[in-house]
Write a structure and sequence with these properties.
Ubiquitin Conjugating Enzyme, four-stranded antiparallel β-sheet
């Protein structure tokens, strides 16, 4: 069944609040005219009054692509109707920007009618505008082939998903981690996040199982590998110890609710900082604490 205009208005406000928690600092998210969001919020509280005529509009600075902005406008019936979003960057020529935005419009027409789309667009831009990534985002290629990853004794995976709602998937993600003696946590909702840490081979097996499930979008945003180190005991030899986990067993589900299924990333950041993983928040979400 189609959503009512009131449902659509509530979802627009929910997405604005979620984005505001993800991009709280000056320059990260800009709302040129705060009037329409305020009018929309008043109308949600007083739906008997005439609906607002203005359109919600804002700009988000891409968290991982330097100098790239996503300019967003919500039609009155968003998310039933697709949003109007275009990308702009000073480093792009007119023809290049036109091609990118043509592909973005096609993505919006085909993607997720009825679902919130701004985070999906930021993910899409990360995959489809790679030439705009900062040069430091990836190491220079090694002549003659890729450098092999050093042998690791202990790994920590940060797995990011567009969303994790399905109860069966959530059950599997927790039970597989426990079966493999991994510690960490699962944050369900939108976005979804999994942190799994333990023996490197067990982390590789865990990721192999996770990626076989059907996902709209999932990937390892960050991986920490620690080589074998000598045990800090007399006569210790390499490989007898490895960095301690940051999370206590058992692997568990952690929720940071803001609006039912949308996560409060401010709570998540504080949770990670309390476990000595504050840097991972910046790497995974591209948002620095100032």
């Amino acid at each position: 069944l189609p959503m009512s205009t009131l449902d659509e208005a509530e979802l627009q406000l929910s997405e604005l609040e979620m984005l505001g928690s993800m991009f709280p600092h000056a320059g990260e998210m800009t709302i040129p005219d705060p009037g329409p969001p305020a009018e929309l919020a008043r109308w949600v509280q007083h739906p008997d009054e005439p609906p607002p005529r203005g359109y919600v509009g804002f700009t988000v600075r891409h968290p991982t692509i330097a100098g790239l902005d996503a300019v967003c406008h919500f039609p009155h019936h968003y998310p039933t109707q697709p949003p109007e979003i275009y990308a702009r960057a000073d480093s792009m020529g007119r023809a290049e920007q036109g091609r990118l935005n043509g592909e973005l419009r096609a993505f919006l027409r085909e993607h997720g009618a009825g679902s919130l789309r701004v985070l999906a667009v930021l993910d899409w831009l990360a995959d489809n505008a790679p030439q705009l990534h900062a040069a430091s985002a990836a190491p220079a290629p090694v002549p003659g082939g890729e450098s092999p990853r050093p042998r690791a004794a202990f790994s920590r995976l940060w797995i990011y998903s567009h969303h994790i709602y399905n109860k069966d998937k959530r059950r599997d993600l927790v039970s597989w981690a426990r079966d493999l003696d991994l510690t960490g946590f699962l944050m369900p909702g939108k976005p979804g996040l999994v942190c799994a840490e333990g023996p490197a081979a067990a982390c590789d097996e865990y990721w192999a199982r996770v990626r076989r499930l059907q996902w709209q979008k999932i990937g390892i945003r960050h991986r920490e590998d620690f080589p074998p180190i000598a045990a800090e005991v007399p006569g210790g030899t390499a490989g007898e110890s490895s960095p301690l986990p940051r999370f206590e067993p058992p692997f568990r589900e952690e929720a940071f609710d803001v609006h039912g299924t949308h996560m409060d990333l401010g709570q998540l950041r504080r949770f990670l900082e309390a476990h000595g993983c504050g840097e991972a928040f910046t790497i995974v979400f591209g948002v620095e604490k100032k």
